[in-house]
Amino acid sequence: MCNNYVLKFRFGCLQKIGYLYKIALRVRPAAAEGVRLRRVRTPAGVAKLADAYGLGPYGKTLGSSTLPSGKIERAKRRESERHPPTALIRREIWTPPSHRPDKERNMEGIKILEKSKTLKSVLFKIDDNTGRRSLSHALNKLKSSVSVPGFRKGKVPDTFLTKEYSGELKDEREKFIISEKLRQLADDNSLRAVSPARLMEFKWSGDVPESFSVELEVIPEFDVSGYKKIPIKKNSKEVTEEDIKKAVLNLRETAARLKSVEKEKPEENLFIKYDMEILEAGGSVKGISRKNLLAEISKEKLMQGLWPDILNLVKNTPGDITFEAPADFEIRSLAGKKMTFRIKITDILEKILPEADDKFAQLFGAKNLNELEEVLKNRLIAEFEIENTRYIREQITDYILKKNPLEIPRSMLDEEKHSMTDTLKKEYPDRKIESMEKEIETLSRKNISLALLLGKIAEKENITLTEDDFKNKLGEKYGKENANRLKNTLLTDKIFDFIIKEGKIK
Fold first, then answer.
1. Contact (CB, 8 A) for 295 and 392
2. pTM for the whole thing?
3. Distance, CA of 269 to CA of 349 (rounded, Å)
4. What per-residue confidence (pLDDT) applies to 270?
């Protein structure tokens, strides 16, 4: 249980907390009734986007100092599948201990001092019985591992080991004693540690162990209040004809095709196919040469520095655009450097949208345009309901966090920040995630605080999941595997439903 003076106290999922704050606001959409829209295969000309070093792929905005709008949220939602919002909301974690520690509290042979709300110093006095058992344990372990000429393995005399292996013997005794005493502290269940115990001192009186002390980071003792009668505003948005027209237009965009046009130079809102090479100080940058890329000619969608000079390039004639990349340039290796984009436009295209008629509707599995519009209307109603639920949850979250400020253990905060930063770096390797450090720390604090507070509410109000909760959600798909996967999501929903029921809805 103990290795190298380190004993890890594990309580549920406390060792790994995901993006709890944003995930708790996530609402799963219900399956739409009626016609199920078929996914249309987008024409190759539109679907094949330029890669990370393109001019600015269709549908993306490049060159910003921070992640494009919505991307950090999507990364968090993907991470949420691995680390759900109620990872900390487990009954075994939140069952109140039989007694709560004061700033200084004594158990038999154990003295607990509060250095802060999240840091405890624990002094252990070693009793004679534990000392004797540690000696017996250490001797037996050494006998089974050491080889001494003249003695069979396991038959080396204790007096010989005590004299010749005094250092190793003392190390084994310390490991045994620390393990025993920390197990005793864990069984007491009054400290909820979130990181390994750190050995501060081990005292001996000759060959007799006297005491040792450790430091532990713990979840602070806290209560939660203000979660009843929360003033809540509803976002009562209704679906309009204009909303339906926009939804149809979005589908037309997905079914669009690109057609070559007889033009020598690109124009705004047209598309280009092109080959590209990035040059720096007269030489080609290794690994940054691409062919047959696609980009929409738009100031908002092109990489910074290329607009409006790209409008002066001529089809089938290589042209150079030179500019100095800013410090926050998305390709980090080129940030702050003067560079040249050598671009050869191979084709100029325009986007052709299909007519919104019955034939178009059949592409998506509907019988006619009226049926397609009705399906889209139902989808929009469901989306507005989801957005309203998210809006309500955001109000509740902000209110609860404001009413219940918590001191967060440093190790929990660091782990959450590391997890979030690591995920974003993997998702966006060419972005300077370090520039978002303050945003990440703020969000990490919210993540952990919300998880702790929701868990406390579940404890106080005895909110648990029943088999009916799973059956109502899963229906015919109900099964142990699916139930376990949805357990944390359903518990989150149930806690928020309770708060909403108790709230003051305007």
1. no
2. 0.65
3. 10
4. 94
- As to burial, measured by CB atoms within 10 angstroms (0-12 exposed, 13-18 middle, 19+ buried), residue 365 is middle
The closest alpha carbon to 313, from 282, 350, 276, 288, belongs to 276
Q: What is the pLDDT of residue 53?
A: 32
In this structure, the strands spanning 338-352 and 257-260 are antiparallel
pLDDT at 193: 86
Type of residue at 254? T
In terms of Cα–Cα distance, which of 114, 95, 99 is closest to 216?
Answer: 114
Look up residue 481 and give its two tokens: 């595997």
Are the C-beta atoms of residues 193 and 218 closer than 8 Å to each other?
Answer: yes
What pLDDT, on a 0 to 100 scale, did the predictor assign at position 226? 95
Give the pair of three-digit tokens for residue 187.
Answer: 């069984």
C-alpha 345/C-alpha 53 separation (Å) is 16
The whole-angstrom separation of Cα 214 and Cα 201 is 7
Q: How far apart, in whole angstroms, are the C-alpha atoms of residue 167 and residue 49?
A: 65
Compute the distance between CA of residue 485 and CA of residue 465 in angstroms, rounded to an integer: 13
Residue ranges in the chain modelled with pLDDT below 50: 1-103
The pairing of strands 283-296 and 104-107 is unpaired
How is the chain split into domains, by residue range? 101-217
Amino acid at 486: L
Helix, strand, coil in percent for the chain, rounding step 5:
40, 20, 40
The whole-number pLDDT of residue 424 equals 87
**Element holding 132 (H helix, E strand):** helix 128-145
Q: Which CATH superfamily is domain 101-217 in?
A: Trigger factor ribosome-binding domain (3.30.70.1050)
| Residue 173: CA count within 13 A, CB half-sphere | 27
Encoded tokens for 226: 């203000």
Residue 479 confidence (pLDDT): 64
CA distance linking residue 375 with residue 388, whole number of Å:
20
